[in-house]
Amino acid sequence: MAIWGFGYKYGGVEDKLEEFVKKQVACSGWGKDNEYFCELLNQVKIGDIVFLKTYDKGSYLLKVRAIGIVTGKGLKNDETLGVCIQVKYIKIYDKPLEIKVNDSVLHRGATLYEELSSEVCRKIINELLISCLNLNI
After folding, report:
1. What average pLDDT is seen over the chain?
2. CATH topology of domain 3-134
3. Which whole-number Å values give the CA distances from 98 to 54, 57, 124, in the listed order?
């Protein structure tokens, strides 16, 4: 199992959060012609955890707006969202969950990346577990 961060603000400004959640997808923002992001998306497996985020590299603040579990394999192209995978969102935040990170890993600002920080992964998993217990899943 892996944990993946997806940016939901295209170009840093165009907010796609509601669309991701409504369509139950996480997307790259790029089409199938972008081999790099298609390769990354192909690494995402059913059962992996996804979180939708923004990252303030000046304050090292990761802001999480939704957490979910990958439910489908295979890339789907959406005209407005780019290449997507299927996700069941378990926790959606009205106010972002803020996670202060103690490193300057630049990839957190990327469209899509695998989260490797044990501290961040632990917080994401704990939030997911709490939500599942509250939902009686």
Report:
1. 88
2. ph1033 like fold (3.10.590)
3. 10, 13, 11
